[in-house]
Every structure is written in structure tokens, then in C-alpha cells.
């Protein structure tokens, strides 16, 4: 057997320099880009560095999937060389600073579209319903120990019990009478549980509120195709808005940045899908996370009929 040739470093018994992995290079790159754009340094913790690398893997996978499906009339390959890194750095750092792990289901989804002004693809990092639930609870002034999200159907029996002179705290009664044929969705509720039950909070969302969200959507495609999933997603977003945020527990600038993008998500989506000059990427269905889309209509679809405490 031929002896393996040694490198010059090995011949001289010098230490072999370890080259950074692509995910490590990505982490360092977005740090530099963010510092250049925001004018402030980024000091990663070891955990945040890991989250940045996970984000790289998620985006890299989405780009590769998109490249496989690239239409013949689209001459711009879906590669890292064609990504607008200035925008991505701002989005990525702010999500990492909120502790969002892109490799967890329904947490962060890369949505890519062609920016004609930049001549590159913008990567919009949409926060999924699990991501919203996570960072909202983590930043809460008084974090609940568990949250139950449920959709209520026409054959279910549901009674909301709000705190009053007869009841010390919010509660509810909920019974599924026909488990395999529950009828139509008529509303939903979220129940925030605390160590002190007097703090427990019940949040209800009516079908009229679901319809209002649907009517405000720029596109009706996802509400039409995934009505249950869209209602569950809306329920989580409405409920987590009731959590008061403790600014000491969260990076305030990152929180404000991501929250503003969450509100603008549908407007941004409308712009790049209706603009004839833009070229939206056709990603796998799991990547659809704009305001009027389910977090994922496939394996990450929430079990809207029964979601236990804390998922």
C-alpha cells in the first residue's frame, strides 16, 4: 500500500491550521456586515455563535432547494454570491440575539426574492409561530410556566370563565364531544398558566376576528387552502401580544426590529409578488411564512385540534 503523502506542515512537524467551516465564515461575515451597517460591534456568546451557524444551514438548504427548481427563464442562480449580505446581516443578527434557532420547526423561515435595485436576492427571515411564542415568552415580564392553544369547533363545548367576585382567576371549561367530526372552527383560545393561579389569563379569539385577519390579507390563497392552520397561527400571534415585555430580559433593538418586520411582512410579500420586475424564489412549501400563510402546510403544521401546554 502506497504511503500517504504528508503536507509540508506535517513534514516539518508544524501544527496544521484548522480552516473555518462555511457556517463559521458566515457567522464572522454577518458580524462584520452588521458592524458596518449598524455602527456597533457584535460580541457573540458561544450559544449565539451556534445559532448563527444553524441559521446558515437553514438558509443554505433553502438556496440549494431553490436552485434545483430554478426556472429556465431565471438567469440568476440561487447562490451565496447572489445574496444581499447587507440586509441579511441585519436580519440574521437580530434574530440570533432573540435566541431563535432556525433548525427548530416553525421558528425561522428564509423567504428569498430578487431585489432589482441591488441586483441580488434579499433573504427575508420570517419568524414562525413557534419562534414568536418562544421569544415573547422568554422576554415576558412575568413568564408563564405553560401556555395552551386550542381551536374550538362547532360541536365542542367551551365556556370562558373570567376572574370576578365569584372566580379568583381566569379559567375555562372545554369538552370535545365529537373527536373525529368536530365541525367548523368557531373560535380559539389561549390559556396562560402561572405558578400563582391568580395570574392565569384566558385569551379568546372569535371566528369574526379570524375572518377580519383573513379579509386584511393581500392574498386569499393560503386562507383558502389552509383555513385551520391559518386560524391556529393567528391565535398564537394574537395571544402572545398580551404578554408584557421586560426590556431587561431582551435585546431591545433586536426585539423592536423583528416586531416591526413581523408587521410589515405582508406588505413586503405583496410588493415582491405583485412587482413584475421581481422574481420570487419557489421554495418548498415549508418556507411559506408571510403574514397570510401557515407556518408550514406540511410536516410542521400545528395540530390545531389539540396543542398541550408549552407545545
Note down, in words, how this protein is organized:
The protein is of the alpha+beta class and 311 residues long. The chain has nine helices and seven strands. The chain has helices spanning 8-11, 22-38, 46-68, 85-96, 129-138, 207-216, 221-225, 227-240, 252-274, and strands at 108-115, 120-127, 146-153, 157-161, 171-175, 185-193, 201-206. The strands form three sheets. It has a three-stranded antiparallel sheet. Strands 1-2 form a two-stranded antiparallel sheet. Strand 6 (185-193) and strand 7 form a beta hairpin. Helix 4 (85-96) packs across helix 9. The chain is globular. It starts with 7 loop residues before the first helix and ends in a 37-residue tail after the last helix. Residues 265-311 have low confidence and may be disordered.
